[in-house]
């Protein structure tokens, strides 16, 4: 099917299909790679999250799911609307803290999205 990427079943803490089957990619890499991907940014309405697809140098198909300021802000707004105590994100140190103007803008937007 289009845009369906199956993870191999790798047992990890009792879950049959988990992050043990994939790898974490730093946000800086995602932001640089998404523009040259096969698909550009795609949006999953169920997960409320962006993803993209690419083929590596040997032709292997990959799918990368990530959060961006829009998806984070939706999650933060949900938390606020439900009166929950907070929200967190996975590895804020994976953002791009270089002095490049685009990187600074992307990183600032991610942190701002945590506050609805």
UniProtKB/TrEMBL annotation:
Q: Where is the GH18 domain?
A: 1-116
User: Which Pfam family is an annotated match for this chain, by its short name?
Assistant: Glyco_hydro_18
Keyword Hydrolase attached: yes
**Gene Ontology CC: one annotated term:** extracellular space
Q: What are the UniProt keywords, alphabetically?
A: Glycosidase, Hydrolase
Q: Which domain of life is it from?
A: Eukaryota
What GO molecular-function term can you cite, just one? chitinase activity
> Which GO terms fall under biological process for this protein?
chitin catabolic process; oligosaccharide catabolic process
Keyword Hydrolase among UniProt keywords = yes
Which PANTHER family does this chain map to? DI-N-ACETYLCHITOBIASE
The molecule here is called DIAC acetylchitobiase
Q: Which organism is it from?
A: Brachypodius melanocephalos
The encoding gene is Ctbs
């Amino acid at each position: 099917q289009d845009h369906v990427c199956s993870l191999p079943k790798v047992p990890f803490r009792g879950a049959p299909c988990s992050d043990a089957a994939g790898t974490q990619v730093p946000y800086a890499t995602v932001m640089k790679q998404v523009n040259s991907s096969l698909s550009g940014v795609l949006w999953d309405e169920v997960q409320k999250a962006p993803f993209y697809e690419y083929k590596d140098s040997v032709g292997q198909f990959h799918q990368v799911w990530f959060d961006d300021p829009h998806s984070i802000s939706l999650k933060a707004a949900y938390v606020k609307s439900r009166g929950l105590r907070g929200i967190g994100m996975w590895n804020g140190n994976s953002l791009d803290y270089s002095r490049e103007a685009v990187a600074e803008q992307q990183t600032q937007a991610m942190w701002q999205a945590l506050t609805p």
